[in-house]
Amino acid sequence: MKLHEYEEFRHQVRRLAQEKIRPHAGVVDEESRLPRDSIDAFRAMALNGLPFPEALGGAGGDLMSQVIAVEEVARVCGSSSLVLLIPWAALTPLVWFGSEELKQEIVPAVAAGQCGASFCLTEPGGGSDLRGIRTRAERVAGGWRINGQKRFISNVGWSDWYAVLARVSDNAFGVFMLHCDAPGFRIGRHERKMGMRGSPTADLIFEDCMVPEHRVVGDPERGHDYMIQTLTYTRPLVSAQALGLAQGALDEAVTYTAGRDQFGTRVSRFQMVRGMVADMAIAVESARALLYRTVEIAGESNDGRARGFASMAKTLCSDTAMKVTTDAVQLHGGYGYMKDYAVERMMRDAKVSQIWEGTNQIQRLLVAKYVYDEPGSGRARV
């Protein structure tokens, strides 16, 4: 796509978000229910299949178009953006490394918005340490037997397919595409969350769960490598979600302060308010610039540089989201603390962006590793 085509696409998604998603965002959060209206809207615009190849029923959209879509949806509803991006992340290892047979079995239905898919890495013992996972897959006659547990899995219940990273030996891991009707698979208790309440979250429990041989993605001993490469792609999507929340909160703060009077003066005329809004705008635009630069780099190669920038973008965008949404609540005064105003929900939704997809503490370690170790980072190797 050329620049003007991206902007046209952005306008289309923004209109969809404002007209079809925003009206239901508060109810979705309040009732902790799947945003069915948003899913219908995605389907009408063919957004569900945006990143997938046309041969698999998708639109073949590049990473920038995906980032723009997530950003614009998150601007009005964090939960809806999560429901949109999780299937993209879940099926990335399959699309990149899986067999043609397995792709044809799974991707078209997800691309059409007929069902979801979920990404399954985190376990009760932690999420950032992929090599520390305990879920095991054992090769048996006809396929693989999986035992273990995954935690904090998004879109549970709506998803028909689950991309599960499991240990196949002491030092090797595989990615397995597990269908919701697989024998030995069950869903645990749904979590009661601070934010992102429209995306159902629960444990997945595997008790001698059987997966057919053909549902292993690529080489069953290269799953760790597949996931590391996938995270270079998914972190910009999570960054876009955080950026969208920050932009949405800034929008709300500007509208509110421009329309409210105090002491006989429009609130937006107060110098301290203007200073806060200026800092919020600077933070949002700085995060957007780094994210878009990251997308450009990731489009060139999936290497150490791309991973370093993905960690930078994830950290800056999510920290910006938390700061800007908190300031937006402050600028609303007492009303910002009320559920009747969107900034309260946006602040709760923003918090998790600093935690998932690798905590920001882990991201900073990855950035430091890039700065010290990666040729071309502009720093001497130490």
Key attributes of the depicted protein:
Butyryl-Coa Dehydrogenase, subunit A, domain 1; 4-stranded antiparallel β-sheet; alpha+beta; Butyryl-CoA Dehydrogenase, subunit A, domain 2; globular; Acyl-CoA_DH_CS; 382 residues; Butyryl-CoA Dehydrogenase, subunit A, domain 3
Beta strand %:
15-25%
- Which of globular, elongated, flat, extended, rod-shaped describes the shape? globular
As for the number of domains, it is 3
Helix content: 40-55%
- What is the CATH class designation of the largest domain? Mainly Alpha
Strand order across the biggest sheet? Answer: 2-3-7-6
Organism: Polaromonas aquatica
InterPro entries: Acyl-CoA_DH_CS, Acyl-CoA_Oxase/DH_mid-dom, Acyl-CoA_Oxase/DH_mid-dom_sf, AcylCo_DH-like_C, AcylCo_DH/oxidase_C, AcylCoA_DH/ox_N, AcylCoA_DH/ox_N_sf, AcylCoA_DH/oxidase_NM_dom_sf
Pfam families: Acyl-CoA_dh_1, Acyl-CoA_dh_M, Acyl-CoA_dh_N
Domain Acyl-CoA oxidase/dehydrogenase middle: 118-209
Mind explaining what this structure looks like?
By secondary structure, the protein is an alpha+beta fold. The protein folds into three domains: 3-114, Butyryl-Coa Dehydrogenase, subunit A, domain 1; 117-221, Butyryl-CoA Dehydrogenase, subunit A, domain 2 (Beta Barrel); 224-373, Butyryl-CoA Dehydrogenase, subunit A, domain 3 (Up-down Bundle). The chain is built from ten helices and nine strands. The protein has helices spanning 3-31, 36-45, 63-74, 78-97, 100-111, 223-259, 271-300, 304-331, 342-351, 360-373, and strands at residues 116-120, 136-140, 143-154, 159-167, 173-179, 185-190, 201-212, 261-262, 265-266. The strands form three sheets. The chain has a four-stranded antiparallel beta sheet with strand order 2-3-7-6, with helices on one face. Strands 1-4-5 form a three-stranded mixed beta sheet. The two termini are 40 Å apart. The model has no long low-confidence stretch (mean pLDDT 94).
